[in-house]
Structures are given as structure tokens and as C-alpha cells.
Amino acid sequence: MTPMNSKKWIDLHLHTLASDGTFTAQEVLEKAREAHFSAVAITDHDSVRALEEARFHGEKFGIEVISGIELSAYHAEQEVHILGYFFDDKNVLLLEKLKEFQSAREKRIHAIVKKLQEIKINISLDDVFKLVGDGAAGRLHVARVLYEKGIVTHPSEAFKRFLSYGKPAYVPKEKISTWEAIDMIRKAGGIASLAHPVFLPQEKLIASFVQEGLQAIEVYHPEHSSGVTDHYRKMAIEHGLLMTGGSDCHGLAKGKMLIGSVRTPYELLEPLKKRALN
User: Fold this and answer.
1) What domain range includes position 272?
2) For residue range 185-244, what is the model confidence (pLDDT) as tens digits?
3) Is 70 part of any domain?
4) E-strand stretches of the chain
5) Quick check: 127 and 150 in contact, CB under 8 A?
6) First vs last Cα of the chain: how many Å apart?
7) How many domains does the chain fold into?
8) How would you classify the pairing of strands 242-245 and 216-220?
9) CB atoms within 10 A of CB 55
């Protein structure tokens, strides 16, 4: 963990049980307090259900809680994740779209489990939806079931063997374009940021996303080395983008707890707030 000093830090990429994390919102805020964060954003996939609980505990712990979300979008056939911040999480049109997305997620899980069963992988829908609970269903829930049953040695192996594009249990997600994801966030009064750009196979796509209304880029991330972080910092300046960052923590869903592994400077929060108000 990064040594502490007098600086203030933020984590703007955190998941809870409302999507595919393993911690409640309270537990996330407790971990954030232990790691001495001043502000956090809960960025569940296609869900804002945890925000009210997070705000309650954030106020109790003296941690600022920012509305957040992570949307899966596509540019051509390339999956791209767009983070949203400072939007109105009671926006009716946004909530209607999220309800549609969550229904599509459940149908996708049904199709994935059926494909696994067809290749004699012994898991059931009940196994997966026990993990999902009231959250937004995703492939990571399936990966965790495969891990818990000893079919794979790590959730990441489940993606490599079964769940990724071209693998036997891959089912495409209902697609929205990057423009639609960015537009959804902006129409709800928020800031749209590109998540973990290191995963983009074609960096030139970032310029296209800027043309579509992208306002920020995730500079700090566990998969970004210091050199990669510097690279995206320069790219943000080049494209006039604000900078965001976070641990992308899913609780223990990916094998280890990441809160505190990445420290994003608090001073990056003020420009985001100002842009959201304009």
C-alpha cells in the first residue's frame, strides 16, 4: 500500500454487492475509511442501488460519496467501459434504461449457464443467482461460481477458458454504443470518463470518444504502471480531458481486496465538480 502522508486521496472506481462486488456499501466505506480516503465513488455496473446506503455511511465516517456508475458499451465490436460521475441518480430516464440493462443481464446469464451445461460444466442458475442477490448480474458472478466449485483455479481463468469472446460459453451483451453511454450520463447531468484505457486495443479510439462527448479519462488504475499513468496523464492534457482514478475494487471477487492499492490525488476532484456544474 502507498505510504500515507498529509495529502488527501480519492478512489473513484468501487463496486458493491449491487453489481459484481462482494462487499456491501457499508463495508466498502469502512475499507475506504481504513485506507484514509477523503472521497469515493460507488461505480456499480448498470446500478445505482447502493448509493443511498453509501451516502449514509459516508456521512457517518466523514467520507464524501459521489454518485457513480459503470456502463458497458461498444465501439464497433470493441467493448468499452464508461464511468459516470456527479449525475442525478434519481433521473427517471436513466433509471428506466438501467432497468432495461439489468433485465438484459439476467437473460445473458441464462444463456451463459445453458452453454456451460451443454459442455458438461455442472453449474445451475440457482448457483449464480444466489451470488447475484439483488445486484446486477454479470459474468464475474459465473466466474466466481466456477471458482467456488473448483472448476477453475481463479475467476480470471473462467474468462480465459469459458466466458470471453470466442470461448465456448461466451454470450454477447446487449449492445449500446459508446455515444449512447456517454449521452446517458451527460443527460443526467454527469461527467463521462473512459475506464481503464490500458485495455483498449486501439488507443486512437480515444479521440473518437472525445468527439462523442467524453469528458474524462481514468489515469490511475491498478493495471496502469507509473509509466502508463504518465502516458494517460499526457493524453488527458492533449485531448482536454479531466483525470479520474480508482482501484476498480470488486471486494474479494477477483481474489484480493484492492481498496488502497491506487491513490488518486484529491485535487483532481475539484475540476470534475466544476465541470458537472457547468
Assistant:
1) 9-89+193-277
2) 999 999 999 999 999 988 999 999 999 999 999 999 999 999 999 999 999 999 999 999
3) yes
4) 9-14, 39-42, 64-75, 78-85, 191-194, 216-220, 242-245, 264-265
5) no
6) 36
7) 1
8) parallel
9) 19
